Amino acid sequence: MASRSFQVHESDNVATLLEDAAAGPVEVVGGAVARDSVVASESIGRGHKIALVDIPSGAPVVKFGARIGHACRDIPRGSWVHLHNLTSDLDARSGTLDLHSGAPTDTGSAYV
Question: What percent of the chain has pLDDT over 70?
Answer without folding.
Answer: 75
